[in-house]
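Page 47, continued from p. 46.
Same chain as before, 195 aa.
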Amino acid sequence: MSLIIIKEDTLVKNDENGDLKWDISHLSQKKQAANFLKCFEQKLCVYSPSVKQLYSKYSMNIPAYFKGNMVILPDPYGFNENFSNIPTSAIQKSAIHIIPGSTSTPEKYYIVASLKGGRTSNPIAFKRAMEKLICLSNDKETFLPVITKGDLREFNLEQPCIHLHTLKLSKLDSLSPLQKNSLKNTIIDLIKQIR
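Result:
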């Protein structure tokens, strides 16, 4: 999958929403990390705390003069697929990370969990891990993965990883049960598209 290159002057300037400009200059393998994140475009919802919105329809772009920034551009026509009034308290850190497989592994993506003492769990195939995480959670607190600025990281300083946050439906007091169910189904349906 290739990255879309855009001119910096075509980027939407929105001082109010700096959450959508991701600085990845600190990563040692910037292009590899950007390509890895691009694999999850419109498959993991992106949360913007400054405007309290969750985007399921967006594109990930890098400026033509790549200096270590990626820009998330929400689909201006994706009104039905993007969600407003999502408080920051509803987005919580998890210990779950997505890492890429290698040429010697049968799966394309794996899940690892951070453990105490800086250790990580053994990798589990992404699809199987997500099925377990979603099925094992109770109805009120289903594990609903989302990403936000800063979630593109490095795993063992040699390969990219995506840290997952989780959306807590119980913290969405301003949304109706119908809206909560729609949001939950959107996130789960997107996750099922990751292969």
